[in-house]
Amino acid sequence: MKHIVKLCWRVTSILLMGLTALGSARGADFSDSFTYPMNPYVEGHRYFDEWTDAFGGKYHAAQDCQGRGGDPIYAVANGVVSYSYGEGGEWAMYGYVMTIDHQLLDGSGVYSLYGHLSTRRWKKLEGEMAHKGELIGYLGDDDEDGSLSEWGPHLHFGIRMGKKSDYYDFLVGYYTDHPAFHGWIDPGGFIENNLRSAGFPDLIGEWNSLIQTCKTTSGRTRCKIQGTLNIQNRGDQKSPSFEVGFYLSENEELDDEDTFLSKATIGSIKAGGNKAKKWSYSLPVGDHATGKYVIAVIDEKYVVAESNRSNNLAVYGPLP
Questions:
Q1: Domains and CATH numbers, the chain
Q2: Model pTM?
Q3: 192 close to 118: Cβ distance less than 8 angstroms
Q4: C-beta separation of 319 from 289 below 8 A
Q5: Closest CA relative to residue 48, chosen from 172, 173, 210
Q6: Are the CB atoms for 184 and 61 separated by under 8 Å?
Q7: Most-buried pick from 89, 145, 147, 211 (CB within 10 A)?
Q8: What phi-psi label fits residue 45: left (phi over 0), alpha (psi between -120 and 50 degrees) or beta?
Q9: 3-state helix, strand, coil in the chain (%, to 5)
Q10: Residue-wise DSSP of 39-79
Q11: Mind listing the pLDDT tens digit for each residue in 254-283?
Q12: 38 contacts 67 by C-beta, under 8 angstroms
């Protein structure tokens, strides 16, 4: 079996050499670097080329990545969505499935495969462009991901040489012989070897100012909160557009009891760049925010694949 694994990695190494040797030819439609489809990326349940007695005894041709229903799934590189369909037919056990064709700089290609996606939630459609780190869909719950319920929500993630259209069995996840004979590559290892040049955005926010003003007219008091939130991208990659959610809290921590105030869309921010967002909110008549905190949740919908998500809250308070 060792010679098969070596063969697989020799082919993979050739692809990787093409990515680096032709760096000057990179373009928007090329896949010149890769990233992980989930953040965090946690392998679990079954690994690439792992032998299992399930299905009569076969090798696993992908990696199963642990997660929760509704977790965001990202495109691993630039490409075109070549398949995007839900349950039914031959692939029913994989729930909603998506594949993306990626063109490498040396003229060859690979396609990435994402199985057990959510059928109910938004997802990209066949024929649409996908860019590295862009949201393409969400992980499915147990009742919609097509897998056995005892497996729990997880992403069936694979990478294969060529294009999806090169194969009839573009989704088969198990083989009686080694997956390398069918063009499948260890997906985690492939991405790890391309990750160094990929980089990530890293969004962080800070309130420049935030005040509460109250006016009483005809015995009715109305208060307004207004200020400026400065958002920086401390990463080394441009971020796509994202949303910021604003909440009123009794303390410095965000929880289910906090009051949602509003949301705002922020355009893309280049690496090392920043944007200032002026924000205001009028409280209901008679309410005030004295002694409370305003929490801004940056990238609330988890659209951006970041290197660090622990710094996405901007807290201000207590308000006077």
A1: 2-194 (2.70.70.10), 203-316 (2.60.40.10)
A2: 0.56
A3: no
A4: yes
A5: 173
A6: yes
A7: 145
A8: left
A9: 15, 40, 45
A10: SS--B-S--TT-EESGGGSEEE-SEEEE--TT-EEE-SSSE
A11: 888 999 999 999 999 998 889 999 999 999
A12: yes
